[in-house]
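Hi support team,

I've been running sequence recovery on a batch of backbones for a student project. Most finish fine, but this one hangs at about 90% for roughly twenty minutes before it completes. I'm not sure whether the input is malformed or the queue is just slow. I've pasted the structure tokens below so you can try to reproduce it. Let me know if you need the job ID as well.

Thanks,
M.K.
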């Protein structure tokens, strides 16, 4: 009955095993229900693009996205590295550019060991916006002026300081200010600001709003080739005449050369592989690229998206860039079940050892099935010891009966054991050997008795 019950349980488990494994796989690989997206200040390209990407994630993946407006790249880097944001937008090389500046100018720099690269999104041009009546025609004219470099946690500030240093201007040569995008309008309007550096996408709402003011104009940065030679994060970009405005003023009024840096999407190393793969797929979607006006990404496709990553590429993004390298099992499932697999193996080993111990304990604590037969065999052996020489007819009959008893005992014992038990149980083998030995001994006594009787008969006179 116990054997049948165990076999029934085993069959049920085998039937249910695929269902159980499927449910475990589905739970382990399903994306989280809610994520956090670190963007930038309102009015900037980061904030606008973060909203667009968040809407796509919610619509396509059914995941709730919380948008966090931050002061810029370093804030986003810190949030992602500490696991407080799942995704963030980051200006390429920001942390490294700050490291290249004097220590007294640097803000506290966050760690980036747990940050992973997802994709390049677009290039941000460094723009010099000036008040028209400030008398500023180039970067050299910023001496003694009130200049906004942006928040110290933004990429704008790092790029602006690098450019100013290239022109030989230090913080003591002008009045450095830290205004957000929203504050720039008011300060220009109040004539409290002479110039501002902005590293931003060409389609950002803030630049269109700024340059629509009668009070401001756009001036060239220059020396883009030289800056690119020094800093691999920079690329050279030319702004065509009238890019931002043609009426009432043409802005810029001539082709301007400037430096550009990439805007990246970053994530944490702990982010779900399936989630990062799905988000990368959204970014590489042509419809999304056209909707968000990501021209470089639209034209460059995967080559642009994965070019020169600042951080190690997340495994989920690699799966989308190189589908041929995608493993059979989802890495989220493998990682999620790693501890479970070790636990299950440990449990199986423990159950196996416990089963063996119980089996041995039962064998040693109860009478072996052969014990009864062995005791009977020993009783027969003791009886035949007393019957040795000068056997009477009754004693001969007793020996013959004992020999039959050994044979019957052996047959009865062996009928209780299966072929597997006979092969595996050393006790059975010993019992059989004992039976044969006792049979031979009794047979030998009977043979001697008959030989002695024949010898006596021959010795008698006829």
């Amino acid at each position: 009955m116990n054997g049948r019950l165990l076999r029934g349980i085993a069959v049920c488990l085998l039937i249910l095993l695929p269902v159980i494994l499927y449910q475990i796989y589905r739970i382990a690989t399903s994306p989280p229900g809610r994520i956090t997206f670190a963007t930038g200040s309102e009015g900037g390209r980061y904030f606008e693009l973060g909203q667009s990407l968040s809407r796509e994630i919610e619509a396509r993946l059914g995941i709730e996205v919380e948008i966090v407006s931050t002061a810029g790249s370093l804030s986003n880097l810190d949030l992602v590295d500490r696991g407080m944001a799942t995704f963030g937008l980051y200006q390429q090389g920001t942390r490294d550019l700050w490291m290249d500046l004097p220590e007294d100018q640097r803000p506290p720099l966050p760690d980036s060991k747990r940050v992973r690269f997802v994709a390049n999104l677009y290039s941000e041009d460094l723009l010099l916006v000036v008040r028209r009546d400030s008398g500023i025609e180039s970067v050299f004219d910023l001496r003694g002026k009130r200049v906004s470099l942006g928040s110290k946690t933004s990429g704008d500030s790092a790029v602006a300081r690098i450019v100013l240093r290239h022109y030989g201007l230090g913080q003591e040569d002008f009045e450095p200010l830290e205004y957000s995008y929203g504050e720039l309008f008011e300060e220009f309007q109040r004539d409290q600001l002479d110039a501002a550096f902005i590293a931003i996408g060409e389609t950002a709402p803030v630049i269109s709003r700024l340059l629509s003011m009668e009070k401001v104009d756009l001036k060239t940065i220059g020396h883009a080739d030289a800056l690119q030679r020094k800093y691999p994060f920079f690329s050279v970009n030319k702004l065509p005449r009238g890019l931002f405005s043609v009426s009432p003023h043409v802005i810029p009024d001539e082709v301007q050369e400037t430096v550009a840096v990439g805007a990246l999407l970053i994530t944490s190393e702990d982010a779900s592989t399936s989630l990062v793969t799905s988000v990368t797929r959204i970014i590489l979607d042509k419809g999304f690229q056209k909707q968000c006006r990501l021209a470089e990404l639209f034209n460059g496709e995967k080559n642009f998206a994965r070019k020169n990553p600042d951080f190690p590429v997340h495994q989920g993004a690699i799966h989308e860039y190189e589908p041929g390298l995608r493993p059979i099992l989802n890495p989220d499932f493998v990682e999620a079940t790693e501890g479970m697999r070790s636990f299950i193996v440990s449990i199986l080993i423990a159950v196996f050892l416990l089963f063996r111990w119980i089996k041995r304990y039962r064998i040693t604590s109860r009478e072996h099935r052969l014990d009864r037969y062995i005791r009977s065999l020993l009783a027969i052996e003791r009886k035949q010891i007393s019957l040795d020489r000068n056997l009477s007819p009754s004693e001969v009959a007793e020996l013959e009966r004992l020999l039959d008893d050994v044979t019957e005992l052996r047959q009865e014992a062996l009928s209780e054991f299966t072929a597997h038990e006979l092969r595996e149980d050393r006790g059975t083998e010993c019992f059989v050997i004992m039976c044969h030995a006792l049979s031979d001994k009794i047979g030998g006594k009977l043979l001697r008795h008959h030989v002695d009787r024949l010898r006596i008969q021959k010795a008698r006179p006829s």
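--
Follow-up from support: It reproduced on our side and the slowdown came from queue contention, not your input. The chain has 18 helices and ten strands. No action needed from you.
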